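This part of the workshop introduces the protein records we will be handling. To make this concrete, we reproduce a full record directly below.
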Amino acid sequence: MFFVIMCNGYMINKCCQKNSKKQKELQDIKNDLDVLNDVNRLRILCLLREHNEICVCEIFKALKLPQNLVSYHLGKLKEAGFVESKKRGANVMYKPGKIKIKNFQFLINNLFNQ
């Protein structure tokens, strides 16, 4: 249930109030959507979901994309927390950033299910 206040005769809910917790959540959603607003990043996440952990060399082969482009997108996803990486020998292995993904899902569900 939204908290409602009156302002000049209009009802204003808490998502419209500057500096509110809800406003910060909306900004977080916007930032996450900016990161996810690329089909190649979504393809990478889909591939990671299917394999849970995969080497960068397998990602660019599976997606038929240049290695440097895949590395760039993985960097953006990693910076945002959507993927995690670890070095295993000469390879870098990537997996979904489960905490970030769950948090993002929670924020999206919370936005539409109040």
The domain at 38-114 is CATH 1.10.10.10 (Arc Repressor Mutant, subunit A). The longest helix spans residues 21-36. Residues 14 and 29 are 16 Å apart (CA to CA).
